[in-house]
Structures are given as structure tokens and as C-alpha cells.
Amino acid sequence: MKNMDYCYLLLPSVHDAMKAEKLLLQSGCAIQVIATPREISHNCGVVIKFSCAEINTVLLSCKELSAEQKIFKKNSNNVYYEIIPE
């Protein structure tokens, strides 16, 4: 993945993250499953990293998941913050 703005999809469990990964790969999203940064959560061990440009595709692809979903982004000071998609 090239140098760009990344977003991070946080789900409650690894099981939910794996379901989301499958849906996102089927929709053609370029994603990476990475260890969850401690600043975001201590619950789930992984998050899905993706280009923020694909946020609408990610949201549509994961719409059928019943699990709570949160999306985070890192600002210029390397601080994660939750974003609320429009």
C-alpha cells in the first residue's frame, strides 16, 4: 500500500474482523488485517486497514454485519480519532 491516508475498521472480535475481511476482499477493496493499535482498543486483536478513499465501499460491503463497527483515522500528530462517515 502506497503512502496515503489510511482508515482502520475496528470490530468487536477477530471472528467479526474475519467476516468483514471476506466481504471486503469480495468487493475488491485493497485491505490489510493488522494488529490493533493499543490507542484504539485492547479488545479485538486485529483491525482492517484500508485507504480512506474507499470508506464508502467499506461501509456498503460491511452493511450486513450485525457487529458494531467503528472507523478510526490517524491525524498529523499520530493520534487516532474516530470518524463518523456521512
Structural features:
86 residues, Alpha-Beta Plaits
Integer count of domains = 1
Find the CATH topology: Alpha-Beta Plaits
Query: How is the largest sheet built, in terms of strand order?
Result: 2-3-1-4-5
Identify the CATH architecture: 2-Layer Sandwich
Number of helices: 2
| Element string (H = helix, E = strand) | EHEEHEE
Radius of gyration of CA atoms, rounded to a whole number: 12 Å
Indicate the proportion of strand residues.
25-35%
Euclidean distance between termini CA atoms: 25 Å
Shape: globular
Account of the 3D structure:
This protein has about 90 residues and is α+β, with helices and mostly antiparallel strands. It has one domain: 2-Layer Sandwich (Alpha-Beta Plaits), CATH 3.30.70.120. About 25% of the residues lie in helices and about 30% in strands. The chain has two helices and five strands, in the order E-H-E-E-H-E-E. It has helices at about 15-25, 55-60, and strands at about 5-10, 30-35, 45-50, 70-75, 80-85. It has a five-stranded antiparallel sheet, with helices on one face. Strand 4 and strand 5 form a beta hairpin. The protein is globular. The termini are far apart. The mean pLDDT is about 90.
